[in-house]
Amino acid sequence: MDLSLFFAGTAGSVPSARRGLPALLIRRGAERILIDCGEGTQRQLVRSVGLTDLTDVFLTHLHADHWLGLPGMLKSFELRDRERPLTVHGPPGTSALLERLRPVYGRPRYGLTIRDLEPGEVIRRGDLEIVPVSVRHRTTAFGYALAEDVRPGRFDAELATRLGVAPGPDFGRLQRGETVDGVAPEQVVGEPRRGRKVVVTGDTAPTDAVVVAAHRADVLVHEATFAHEDADRAAATGHSTARQAAQVAADAEVRMLALTHLSSRYAGREIRDEAREVFPATEVPRDFDTIEVPLPERGAPELVRWQPPQHPTRSAPAPLESPA
Ligand SMILES: [Zn+2]
Ligand SMILES: [Zn+2]
User: Is 122 exposed, middle or buried (0-12, 13-18, 19+ CB in 10 A)?
Assistant: First the structure.
């Protein structure tokens, strides 16, 4: 199953010409999970991968740069005759805030559920669990840890056949852990294989809570609002510097660190270079870049730069699926 992170907006606080406000689209099989929805997010999506039918939205916290795009997006889904239900999750206060905004988006026919989460509460989507983690910001703020279940070990059908087990129902019994004709499951089934883990911090000062939640994650998406020369400013505002985020990644032993929520004063390269001195496997995605996250045994996560369409055809509008 494919798993990728699409960076719809990588700025912090205020947008720049090149970076939109925070939004991260996680695509996994048929699931489309949006983490944060800054002002302009639907336009960012329409300009890139299309305004996809999201399955869940998770807000990290209620600072305006992280949710102001949501009421308009909820309204657009209604105008597009969306049918799939949608759940918006966030820290305590999310439902009260969105209820006050009802006059903007009304009562969508597609079925909108708004849920305030508690830290540590597990939200399950098939074999994926999503857990809010309390982080350290100026207001109640969550990061989110997304982790797939452990997968059964690989079944060696060839070896099982050689040991005298007939293909068919007996293979299933072995895979379920039963001994068949003197052949034990551990002879033909490998070690359980871990699933993938992705942790997204939202806004936070460096915190051990993230080190613990992101332990050996495939990808840690950490904010880096400032470079380290502005460490005082970062501390005063509940944010991290690139160097601090890199130290968190190193302590958590993640495979890849992706830095986002950059202040508009930085282009990105200086943030990346500073972090790489501490944690070499650091990337600073630009808007519309993607990180592909393969199953652990198939390789390391990889940043794929956005390629704008080279030769737009005559009528080249972005793929809006139905008129709004
Ligand atoms: Zn922010
Ligand atoms: Zn904030």
Answer: exposed
Joined together, the tokens standing for residue 160 give: 């099982």
Distance CA 286, CA 305 (A): 8
Residue 313, pLDDT above cutoff 90: no
Q: Which residues pair with 155 in a beta bridge?
A: 189
How many angstroms separate the alpha carbon of residue 222 from the centre of ligand 2? 13
Which tokens belong to 264?
């508009």
User: Taking the CA of residue 323 as centre, how many other CA atoms within 13 Å lie in the half-sphere pointing to its CB?
Assistant: 0
From the CB of residue 228, how many other CB atoms can be counted at a distance below 10 Å? Answer: 18
Question: The pTM is what?
Answer: 0.92
Contact 206, 240 (CB under 8 A): yes
Amino acid 309: pLDDT: 76
Name the residues around ion ligand 1, CB cutoff 5 A.
Answer: 12, 65, 203
How many angstroms does the Cα of residue 7 sit away from the middle of ligand 1? 15
Centroid of chain to Cα 5: 6
Q: What are the pLDDT digits (tens) for 181-233?
A: 999 999 999 999 999 999 999 999 999 999 999 999 999 999 999 999 999 99
Positions marked catalytic: 65
Q: How far is the CA of 313 from the centre of ligand 2 (A)?
A: 40
User: Could you tell me the strand order of the sheet in which 282-283 lies?
Assistant: 123-125, 128-134, 142-148, 197-200, 219-223, 256-260, 282-283
* Residue 310 confidence (pLDDT): 76
Mean pLDDT score of the chain, rounded to an integer?
Answer: 94
Backbone angles phi, psi at 165, to 5 degrees: -90, 130
Residue 255 is encoded by which pair of tokens? Answer: 């495979």
